[in-house]
């Protein structure tokens, strides 16, 4: 009898959810969607593909993540509508709005709108333990450093940070998985990661060999924070098996973005799927612990999509002024 009651209740809930979904105005919704992520082996790809699949399943629309060059390219793809959604960091977003995105210099990419807060991207350095590199000061002159895919947040900012700290290096680019393999094979001396933690490529390296995760000194951290749009951040000790204590770092906020011309009801529905159940997002990637409604205020750069703004106003008490909402 208890089993029968539970079954009936479950059916009732399912029918109720279906009926609620049928009341949503789907006028103009696309038949499918893509989410611009980054290279395989990085956090963007794992996180972005995960929420794309979740949204596709919940809303009954075909969709998924797409491998891209990262935040700069995602801004371009979403601005032009070649991708409905994407992911970016605040630095590349600001540069894209100003028309200094290297993909299309002189073009202000103003048709990419903020959708929801994702997480902070820490900047961290990894080397093989066998290299003897345990600090930024230990990095040898002319070191071969992998900075991630060309045009990514890491490639855009980390070389400048290294130069600011007085490091002379040979610049290398590639996907995170590929760079991790090159580090292990001795083809690189260091990898400079800008990605949500734990970075899949670093976790994989830890399984295969001994690595050093190098933190900034207090002085180095202060120097970088003064010169770049980043904030103080500590990589928690439990993030990697290699760490025995929190590692001093800096970070930059990431936001999901949507083409500003997408229907309001569609974007609102997507935001609801992602933001209404944080446990599901954390199951996709641990970095999603910060994918919570209260972090809506971390966007001070992009115009909000009307559908996203509506969700945060109604569900998070967000005080988003009309001047920051696209089309208002």
| SS field, number of helical segments | 11
Helix/sheet category: alpha/beta
What CATH first level of the largest domain would be assigned?
A: Alpha Beta
Sheet-strand content, in percent, reads 15-25%
Mean pLDDT figure: 91
Organism: Kangsaoukella pontilimi
Pfam families: NMT1_3 (PF16868)
InterPro entries: TRAP_TAXI
Signal peptide: 1-20
Supply database-style keywords.
328 residues; alpha/beta; D-Maltodextrin-Binding Protein, domain 2; 2 domains; ten-stranded mixed sheet; 11 helices; 10 strands; globular; disordered N terminus
Structural notes for this entry:
The protein has 328 residues and is an alpha/beta fold. The chain is built from eleven helices and ten strands. Strands 1, 2, 3, 4, 5, 6, 7, 8, 9 and 10 form a ten-stranded mixed sheet that branches. α2 crosses α9 and α6 runs parallel beside α7 (200-208). The longest helix has 21 residues, at 2-22.
């Amino acid at each position: 009898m208890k089993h029968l009651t539970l079954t009936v209740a479950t059916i009732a809930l399912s029918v109720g959810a279906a009926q609620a979904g049928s009341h949503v105005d789907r006028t103009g919704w696309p038949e499918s969607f893509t989410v611009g992520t980054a290279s395989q082996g990085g956090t963007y790809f794992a996180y972005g593909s995960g929420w794309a699949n979740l949204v596709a399943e919940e809303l009954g629309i075909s969709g998924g993540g797409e491998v891209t060059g990262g935040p700069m390219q995602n801004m371009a793809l979403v601005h032009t509508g070649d991708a409905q959604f994407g992911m970016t960091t605040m630095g590349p977003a600001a540069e894209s709005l100003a028309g200094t995105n290297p993909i299309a210099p002189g073009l202000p990419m103003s048709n990419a709108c903020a959708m929801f807060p994702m997480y902070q991207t820490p900047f961290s350095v990894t080397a093989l333990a066998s290299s003897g590199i345990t600090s930024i000061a230990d990095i040898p002159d002319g070191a071969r450093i992998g900075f991630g895919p060309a045009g990514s947040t890491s490639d855009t900012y980390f070389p400048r940070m290294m130069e600011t700290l007085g490091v002379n290096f040979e610049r290398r680019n590639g996907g995170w998985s590929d760079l991790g393999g090159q580090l292990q094979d001795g083809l690189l001396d260091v990898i400079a990661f800008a990605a949500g933690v734990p970075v899949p490529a670093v976790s994989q390296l830890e399984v295969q060999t001994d690595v050093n995760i190098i933190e900034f000194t207090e002085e180095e951290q202060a120097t970088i924070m003064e010169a770049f749009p980043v904030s103080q951040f500590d990589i928690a000790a439990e993030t990697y098996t290699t760490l025995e204590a929190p590692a001093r770092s800096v970070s930059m906020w990431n936001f999901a973005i949507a083409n500003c011309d997408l229907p309001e009801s569609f974007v609102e529905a997507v935001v609801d799927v992602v933001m209404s159940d944080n446990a599901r997002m954390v199951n996709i990637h641990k970095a999603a612990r910060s994918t919570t409604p209260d972090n809506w205020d971390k966007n001070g750069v992009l115009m909000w999509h009307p559908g996203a703004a509506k969700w945060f106003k109604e569900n998070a008490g967000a005080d988003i002024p009309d001047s920051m909402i696209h089309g208002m």
